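ARCHIVE CARD
Drawer: 12
Card no.: 0347
Subject: one protein chain, sequence and derived structure
Cross-reference: see card 0346
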Amino acid sequence: MASSSAPVDKKMQEQEYETTEYNYKRYNVCGMRFETTMQYAVRKAVGQGAYGLVCSGRNVESNKTVAIKKIPKAFEDTIDCKRLVREIKILRHFRHDNVLGLVDILPPHGDMKDWKDVYIVSELMDTDLHYIIHSKQPLTDEHFKYFLYQILRGVHAIHQAHVLHRDLKPGNLLVNKNCDLKICDFGLARAIDPTEDKKDLGLTEYVVTRWYRA
């Protein structure tokens, strides 16, 4: 077991890993196998759910912090796979302060037919607005104004690119310690042709965020 290079700050200590036969780093995070290229070092798990596992990490070449999301068995469900491809295609074209940036997609290793898990690297944020709303963190009018300004700015940029997010909610609004906000999770988003009639857009009736129906 080889130890990854770790910063002096113990709170940000990077986890130990073993090197695979394909020169990948293999970690054990929350009992789950987590693999990255040699370019990234994993620090700790920051989120886990039905979508998979998200870890904070570091690009060892640029020394920038990142979030690395593992989506296990990404190709087993056709609908989930389509949402993943759609999200990646959309995020590749966004470079905006209030939209979560896609940094990298880790290439598969070994035989392509054995490729099951997808790893997406993005900007690292501290928490989401849902957590802040339900926490004891006091919020002032200035907080509300700044958050709302950033949400509207991000939505405007998304709509200018002829994309509908369709799942805008506090859990999909990431925030850092400076109160900077970024919109994430474009799995249900749709790119639209502004020249087409709205009735012919081919959008599904299903929308997760119920307030969209109001």
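Annotation on reverse: The longest strand covers residues 40-49. Residues 141-160 form the longest helix (20 residues).
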